[in-house]
Write a structure and sequence with these properties.
Layout (H helix, E strand, L loop, with lengths): L1 E5 L11 H6 L1 H14 L3 H7 L2 H5 L1 H23 L3 H4 L2 E4 L3 H8 L5 H17 L6 E7 L3 H12 L4 E8 L2 E7 H13 L4 E4 L12 H12 L10 E2 L6 E2 L2 H13 L4 H10 L4 E5 L4 H8 L4 E5 L2 H10 L1
Parallel strand pairs: 1-2, 1-9, 9-10
Antiparallel strand pairs: 3-5, 3-6, 4-5, 7-8
Helix pairs in contact: 2-5, 2-8, 5-7, 5-8, 5-15, 8-11, 9-10, 11-12
Length: 311
Amino acid sequence: MRAFIFPGQGSQAVGMGVALAEASSAARELFQEVDEALGQHLSRLMAEGPADQLTLTENAQPAIMANALATLRVAEREAGLKLADKADFVAGHSLGEYTALAAAEALDVATTARLLRLRGQAMQAAVPVGEGTMAALIGTELSDAQAVAVEAAQGEVCVAANDNAPGQVVVSGHKGAVERAIAIAKERGFKRALLLPVSAPFHSPLMEPAARAMAEALAGADLRPPIVPIYANVTAAPAGDPAEIRALLVQQVTGMVRWRESVTAMFEAGVTHFVEFGGKVLTPMIKRIAPDATTTSVVTMNDVEALAKEI
């Protein structure tokens, strides 16, 4: 069995998608579709920068989605790799869950782009800049990271936000609380504990205003059953009913991304091959979670051609 997976924020880079668009009309058409949906030359920003504008959450989220979907479109058109025939499940890390839904035809591309633009704006606006942040705790397991977060909170918010892989947990919350978590982690001998270059405390209760905004937006979105089940971040379980998926996407804004558990669950369900489209971020995590699984990253035209031979 095989899962197609899609990366989250942090995988953006100036120049993303340029070579693919030069090589394939399928990529160019996808980028144009996103540009038109947003009323913005996002593809130009992706190609030329500046980097600080591309990194803005409201731009990075639809850009990462567009790049990943373009890669999949090229694989489908140029190599005949239809998702319905080649994938048993889809999944995505945080915003990548929206990409996965678009890949599985639960959302159209324009709707996905607009939802991610709104999601980025709402998440950034939920907490004033400088009041919240996130930190990576390396060399620890989820239970230990959660204990550190509880101790560090001291009346503020500090929670485990991303359970990415064995030994890699991200905490999120008020800046002071997260800084205390880093100090406690170092005292307890964690391998590393460092602030992440983010502008908001994603996947924490502080994102509740953004969750309300997404609930309203998703209520009016045309969301259909995906052609293959999607493993949801907040449950680490497959979902296929549109009403359930809507609710899970809202919960995801404030809830923990259970990526380690999701990959484990897919592997235990029989997935032996994970194919990441549009990035090389998730595959190293998967090799640590499920060492016996096969992983493939598809970013370039050469990667598309290699995948076609592989599957």
